[in-house]
Amino acid sequence: MATTKEHPRMSTRVLRTPGGGLSLRITPRAAIVVALLAIAVFFLGAVSMTTGDYPLSVGEVIQTLFGFGDRSTEFIVTTLRLPRLLTALLVGGALAVSGAILQSLSGNPLGSPDFIGFTEGAAAGALLTIIVVHGGMLQVSLGALVGGVVTAALIALLALKGGVHTFRLILVGIGVNAMLIAFNSYLITRAAWQDGLAAQAWLVGGLNGRGWEHVGPVAIAIAVLLPPAFVYGRRLSLLEMGDDSAKGLGVPVQRSRVVLLGVSVGLCSIATAAAGPIAFLALAAPQLAKRLTRSSGPGLAAAALMGMLLLVTSDLITQQFLAGLPVGLVTGAIGGLYLAWLLVSRRGVSRAAR
Fold first, then answer.
1. Do 263 and 148 form a contact (C-beta atoms < 8 A)?
2. Model pLDDT, residue 24
3. Residues 6+ apart with CB under 8 A from 253
4. CB-CB neighbours of 183 under 10 Å
5. How far, in Å, CA of 15 to CA of 4, rounded?
6. Contact present, 24 and 231 (Cβ < 8 Å)
7. So what's the pLDDT on residue 91?
8. Cα distance from N-terminal residue to C-terminal residue, the chain
9. CA dist., res. 105 & res. 240, Å (int)
10. pLDDT given for residue 333 in this prediction
11. Which position among 43, 161, 263, 274 has the lowest Cβ density within 10 Å, counted as fewest Cβ atoms?
12. Is the Cβ–Cβ distance between 166 and 157 less than 8 Å?
């Protein structure tokens, strides 16, 4: 049985296994925020399953999930709505955790896959598959995954000089991201109009037409990548203190950064492969979660739930009010407003510090 120990100054509780091999520090505020976010995600998920062109009651959805619904209800629930909802939850959680890791490693709230090039790299792989290979949905997803991984490897190689240093990684990533944006625009301008339309639609990012073939791969990838994310994520707070301090506390700095960077790239690539480049979600979700929990660390659990909440909410908005337009339009609008607010608030802080 796990034991608890309360920190005398920080009002935190530490859960420990009997042997002391594993421990988890929990603050009451963070635990409450995580619980409320989980409830909100569950509620909005229920709304997503019951509303639409063919409204259903909660009882009808539950009966169908247990195999007691009629054929039409089963098609709506298990073929249309449930895969779309699960894709939104998995993609939102994966992008948020990826963004939280990168922001913590870089020490910069703008350190997100959207700015460092990982998302554009995945988009380049997908565009090449659409325009050059004329591949289907599965091939496009595979191309996006390969593109994201190759781009991350290229950025790491260019930034690698005596170890992985986050400042140089951010600069190299921004440069590669700019080149990839130009490359992707070139691909679209040179494509046939049908391929160009398909590529442009994919670049917006969306959940329309997502089925079980999208849920399976992203679920497997998350099941593989989340455990090391949370295990190594405990070291992020120590890495934020600086290399010397982290080494003094026994943290293998370079190995931890390489593993965390690989996890972040994997989560971002598989999420982009499943739903396209969902704009600004990886940027905004970790910061919003951190402001709610007021935690000094990255708060991966809260970030994941916030990412799920934002994407499910955005998808509901598109379905109910925007005639099923790509969800990336809504996340882009929300993220743009958040980015403007973040830059203005940072400007105010910098002026006050003078």
1. no
2. 56
3. 163, 239, 243, 246, 247
4. 15
5. 5
6. no
7. 94
8. 52
9. 7
10. 81
11. 161
12. no
Q: Are the beta carbons of 281 and 113 closer than 8 angstroms? A: no
- Mean pLDDT per 10-residue interval, the chain, length 354 residues: 44 53 65 93 93 86 85 88 93 92 80 83 86 77 84 81 65 88 87 78 81 86 88 73 66 76 86 85 88 78 93 90 80 78 64 49
Residue 126 CB burial class (10 angstroms; 0-12, 13-18, ≥19): buried
- CB atoms inside a 10 Å sphere around CB 261: 21
The two most distant CA atoms of the chain are separated, in Å, by: 68
8-16: list long-range contacts, CB under 8 Å, 24+ apart.
Answer: none
134's torsion region: left (phi>0), alpha (psi -120 to 50) or beta?
Answer: left
What 3 state SS string does the chain have? CCEEEECCCCCCEEEECCCCCCEEEECHHHHHHHHHHHHHHHHHHHHHHHCCCCCCCHHHHHHHHCCCCCHHHHHHHHHHHHHHHHHHHHHHHHHHHHHHHHHHHHCCCCCCHHHHCHHHHHHHHHHHHHHHHCCCHHHHHHHHHHHHHHHHHHHHHHHECCCECHHHHHHHHHHHHHHHHHHHHHHHHHCCHHHHHHHHHHHHCCCCCCCHHHHHHHHHHHHHHHHHHHHHHCCHHHHCCCHHHHHHCCCCHHHHHHHHHHHHHHHHHHHHHHHCCCCCHHHHHHHHHHHHHCCCCCCHHHHHHHHHHHHHHHHHHHHHHCCCCCHHHHHHHHHHHHHHHHHHHHHHHHHHHC
Q: What is the pLDDT of residue 242?
A: 64
Q: How far apart are CA 207 and CA 289, in angstroms?
A: 23
Paired sense of beta strands 23-26 and 13-16, if any: antiparallel
Amino acid, res. 144? A
What type of residue is 205?
G
Report the pLDDT value the prediction gives residue 348, as an integer from 0 to 100. 53
Q: Quick one: tokens of 230? A: 């949370």
Tokens of 245: 């301090």
